[in-house]
Amino acid sequence: MYLTRLKLIHFRNYEQLNHSFYPGVNVLYGRNAQGKTNILEAIHICGNGKSFRVNADSKTVMEGKEGAYLFAEYVESMDRSVEVLIGRDRKKSLKIDGIPAKNLKELLGNLFVVVFSPEDMKMAKEAPSLRRGFLDGEISKIRPSYVDALKNYTKIIAQKNAALRRRENRDTGAVIDAYNAQLAGYIRIILKNRKSYVNKLGEYVRETHRAISGGTEEISIVYKETVPETGIAETLKKLRERELFEGSCTAGPHRDDLEILLNGKDIRVFASQGQLRTLMLAVKTACLKILEESTGHTPVLLLDDVFSELDQTRKKNLLRTLKGIQTFITTADDADAKLLARAHLFYVENGTVRERQPG
Ligand SMILES: Nc1ncnc2c1ncn2[C@@H]1O[C@H](COP(=O)(O)OP(=O)(O)OP(=O)(O)O)[C@@H](O)[C@H]1O
């Protein structure tokens, strides 16, 4: 799958854009704050219905304007399109192949897009909630039913937490047992999905990571569960007294984490910035492969400012791993644009895009 055309009206610093792109590597280069990442953001919204930079999409509407219009034309096996209208009032309208879509769920599963942005580095280093959020987001793309299990689980955990906090009722124990009975089924579904995703992810990350790092480093990714999949009901029962004492749910998928080891050591403590970036690139490429396997379509890959902190060898190795994937890369560094001379180059300046002709 590849994007052939992007049209924007009143999106960020683009008054109007109507530009075509190529399969293969498209490099957006230019000085800082010119609108390179804005292009990636627009493509991401067309694919995933939301920005990867801000929670409120209304912030992407050009200052002083009422709404933004985004149109992405892409080739699957035939020409297809996605249109998004974002209102400053937060209302959003969507069209798929010219036909209005009822909701975001309908949009997902059309233009597949995977993004790597500097923000993703936080996932490796910071709070476990970021790693859980990453896993849940990726699994939801390939298993829509997972979203329902997760929503129900989260709702029951909130109710159970409220009951544990109240504790004034003599029957609280029985109420907690009733919640646990409901939770057990959802925990099973969440663990099954997360663990099988992590197994596959680990395998693909190792492969790509070796290719980018030149085979000098070994990565391992392990899912750390707080309630074992093999004894869910028993564990919840055992936890009951402690939870009643502490007044909150102390274990379950909402407390689980991913452990990422580089040459056997925790990356949060031992990895350099370049190593972290290499790891996250391998993670994103692995997500793309998993998405490709389950949908039969190769997603479009967006790499925002990916080259900083990578040495020349890693940059070249990364480019080799991108074969067959339409990729958009932003860079403010002219030397990177030269390294990417065989790609299609687009000079971005003050909300305009100009293709640099070869030669
Ligand atoms: N809602 C908006 N309305 C108008 N202009 C905006 C809006 N949001 C952001 N901008 C402008 O977009 C520009 C930033 O664009 P972008 O984030 O794409 O930069 P970039 O070219 O990727 O830069 P860098 O190399 O620094 O990452 C800035 O000039 C900013 O003022």
From TrEMBL:
Binding site for ATP: 30-37
Gene3D superfamilies in alphabetical order: P-loop containing nucleotide triphosphate hydrolases, RecF/RecN/SMC, N-terminal domain
Domain of life: Bacteria
GO CC terms, sorted: cytoplasm
A GO MF label: ATP binding
Pfam families xref list: SMC_N (PF02463)
Example of a GO biological process term: SOS response
Keywords annotated in UniProt: ATP-binding, Cytoplasm, DNA damage, DNA repair, DNA replication, DNA-binding, Nucleotide-binding, SOS response
Segments forming domain RecF/RecN/SMC N-terminal: 2-333
Subcellular location(s) of the protein: Cytoplasm
Coiled coil, from the record: none
First-listed, main subcellular location of the protein, grouped into a coarse class: cytoplasm
Function description: The RecF protein is involved in DNA metabolism; it is required for DNA replication and normal SOS inducibility. RecF binds preferentially to single-stranded, linear DNA. It also seems to bind ATP.
Family statement drawn from the similarity comment of this UniProt entry: Belongs to the RecF family.
NCBIfam families: recf
Protein's name according to its UniProt entry: DNA replication and repair protein RecF
Source organism of the structure: Christensenella minuta
